[in-house]
Amino acid sequence: MKDDKSAAFEIETERRRSQVFLDGFLRAYGLRKFKWSDRNILAVLEQGTASPEEVRRIRKLIVDDEGVLEGDVFDHRELWGRDRVPLVMVGHPYKLHAPGLSLLSEIVGLGLDVHVSGDSWYGHGTAHVRVSSPLLENYRL
Fold it and tell me: Ramachandran region of residue 111, left (φ > 0), alpha (ψ -120 to 50) or beta?
């Protein structure tokens, strides 16, 4: 069993590593945090190449009439953008389940970029899911 100092050191090391990861991502694109809202989610989804009907169908899988759906792919969610343009939706799920992976596949079908990795700046054993507009690369500093 770990002593308190060892556990505290590991937590602080993880926190610092996560902050470096996040800072690097934000610095590369000059992004700032946006509100996770139906309007901003729709703005990201519309930046792909899909029809408005298909975008609305996928949006309903993320946001229903009651508000933003919780959990799975977009657990611990964040939305980032620049110059009043929402560009990136990020989730930090503990696990990805079949419905979430199916949703990500459908999002790719909208013409958006999807990146999934096991290393998340949220930490605590979460994965990193990033859905970004093809326009994101235009913002690289």
Answer: left
Alpha carbons 139 and 82: distance in angstroms, whole number: 8
- With 70 as the cut, is the pLDDT of residue 2 above it? no
CA distance 20 to 9: 17
pTM comes to 0.83
Q: What is the pLDDT of residues 41-54, one digit of tens each?
A: 999 999 999 999 99
Give residue 8's Cα distance to chain centre.
28
Orientation angle between helical segments 52-62 and 38-45, nearest 10 degrees: 140
Assess contact for 127 and 21: CB atoms under 8 A.
no
Q: How many CA atoms lie within 13 A of 22 on its CB side?
A: 18
Q: Which two tokens stand for residue 21?
A: 């990861």
Q: Give residue limits of the domains in the chain.
A: 4-139
Strand partners, 90: 78, 130
Give 35-42 contacts, CB < 8 A, sequence gap 24+. Answer: 35/79, 36/68, 36/77, 36/78, 36/79, 36/89, 37/68, 37/79, 38/63, 38/67, 38/68, 40/79, 40/81, 40/86, 41/68, 41/79, 41/86, 41/89
